[in-house]
Amino acid sequence: MRILVTGGAGFIGSHVTDRLIAEGHEVGVVDNLSTGKKKNVNREATFYKMDILSPRIERVFKKLRPELISHHAAQMDVRRSVADPLFDAQVNILGLLNILENSIKYGTKRIVFASSGGAIYGEQESPVSEDHSTHPQSPYGVSKLCGEYYLHYYHKTYGLEYTSLRYANVYGPRQDPFGEAGVVAIFSQRMLRGEQPIINGNGMQTRDYVYVGDVVEAHMAVLNGHLHGIFNVGTGRETTVNQLFRHIMSITEAQVKEVHGPERRGEQFRSCLNASRLHKQADWEPKVSLLDGLKYTVDYFREVLK
After folding, report:
1. Among 125, 196, 230, 284, which is most exposed with the fewest C-beta within 10 angstroms?
2. Which of 73-77, 171-175, 183-187, 265-269 has the weakest average pLDDT?
3. Catalytic residue among 48, 106, 121, 140
4. Smallest Cα–Cα separation from 41: which of 72, 5, 66, 2?
5. Which residues on neighbouring strands pair with residue 27, listed in sequence order?
6. pLDDT at residue 180 is higher than 60
7. Cross-strand partners of 198
8. How far apart are the first and last CA of the chain?
9. What pLDDT, on a 0 to 100 scale, did the predictor assign at position 266?
């Protein structure tokens, strides 16, 4: 199959690209390298350094004629979306529309959309299913939910099939430790460097941390199973930021303290996803435990820092 991965030089997109190539697909990668890294791009993929907002992206569609789009290119920083909602909407809404318009024009059959469960649902009382009400508390969550509505529109109007994967908090090798997103990467690298990480707020906020390898398996499960619609991708288990900090401190053997800073605007307190729909329809479930996944991630950053 001819597949275009947007954001394929980034954290999740590059892992998805690796797996697609391993499965024998012809893969093109579009990435503007604003946060992604060229070294992450699989050598067997055709790379196009390009912004998804650019009108030049039509050339990629005309050349590759992708049958499927794996759309991971995004502005994914919740805090930046709060500070600059216009930029967030330009990338996450107008960028998606540019992809969708070219998909219709050049005969793309299907799109797999990297969405966000935590940001779309808003505050939660327990692991939430896909039927949970949506009350995003940040412009990032609003833009991702808006993207799902556009996918539904293009499906009803043009027959473009779609699968929206609402990711929990994905972590693992290649995650960016320098931005505001990616607390596992930030804590890991700072502790390995002997630097003091800062926990935002009281650290009792919870997240559902899912390993990137399990996310790739979810992507392949919906692809190979020809599943359509909306699916949560998470573990169903909550971990506080304080607990996460202590796990990473133990793994790195860092001599640091639990230092707390101010709360951040736009951050919700609890987030946890029920992925039973994906389990029932695709026999998918997360295989990597949090402790194992953290060890794999810390080992990766140890190698990076050598």
Report:
1. 125
2. 265-269
3. 140
4. 5
5. 3
6. no
7. 259
8. 38
9. 65
